[in-house]
From TrEMBL:
Catalytic activity: (8S)-3',8-cyclo-7,8-dihydroguanosine 5'-triphosphate = cyclic pyranopterin phosphate + diphosphate
Superkingdom in the source lineage: Bacteria
EC numbers for this chain: 4.6.1.17
Pathway, per record: Cofactor biosynthesis; molybdopterin biosynthesis
The protein, known as: Cyclic pyranopterin monophosphate synthase
EC class of the enzyme, as a word: lyase
Gene3D superfamilies for the chain: Molybdopterin cofactor biosynthesis C (MoaC) domain (3.30.70.640)
InterPro entries per UniProt: MoaC, MoaC_bact/euk, MoaC_sf, MoCo_biosynth_MoaA/MoaC, Mopterin_CF_biosynth-C_dom
Free-text function comment from the UniProt entry: Catalyzes the conversion of (8S)-3',8-cyclo-7,8-dihydroguanosine 5'-triphosphate to cyclic pyranopterin monophosphate (cPMP).
Keywords: Lyase, Molybdenum cofactor biosynthesis
Complex and partners: Homohexamer; trimer of dimers.
Record GO terms (molecular function): cyclic pyranopterin monophosphate synthase activity
Organism from which the protein derives: Aliarcobacter vitoriensis
Family to which the UniProt record says this protein belongs: Belongs to the MoaC family.
Length: 156
């Protein structure tokens, strides 16, 4: 299997998608942050000096999704048509699971955008709560599903 980000001389390149058909593309990614009970309860009770953590993480996720092409060298700048973020609270394990859905009609997929959005959102939670708990663990960043494009659909 040849890597599409390398040319015939093994030099990096951005894939040319100009001949690909535009299709509706959707990607969903998720990730988790686990923390101490004290940190979890401070977030839930909105008792963090830096402000509302979960709302800020959602905004950061959206910003990260939109700026993926500035962070990942071979990603195309995309005209995203929608970004949605959901956060599941898990009190039993003092964790939050963040989901990012990215959508567009275009010639290339949005998996990297969804994954970047999740990463930035979770890092934002860490940044805002690190004064309480520096041992937080960010884990399980993964693609949940994708649809559209030549490679077809994927569902974890």
């Amino acid at each position: 299997m040849n890597l599409t980000h390398l040319d015939e001389n093994n030099r990096p390149k951005m894939v040319d998608v100009s001949d690909k058909n535009e299709t509706k593309r959707v990607a969903v990614a998720s990730g988790k942050i686990t923390m101490s009970k004290e940190a979890y309860e401070a977030i839930i009770s909105n008792n963090i000096k830096k402000g509302p953590v979960l709302q800020t993480a959602v905004i950061a996720s959206i910003m990260g999704t939109k700026k993926t092409h500035e962070l990942i060298p071979m990603c195309h700048p995309l005209l995203l048509s929608g970004i949605n973020c959901d956060i599941e609270e898990n009190q039993a394990e003092n964790s939050f699971k963040l989901f990012v859905t990215a959508k567009l009609n275009g010639q290339t997929g949005v998996e990297m955008e969804a994954l970047t959005g999740v990463s930035i959102g979770l890092l934002t939670i860490y940044d805002m709560v690190k004064a309480i708990d520096k041992s937080m663990i960010i884990s399980d960043i993964q693609l949940e599903s994708k649809s559209g494009g030549k490679s077809g659909d994927f569902k974890r």
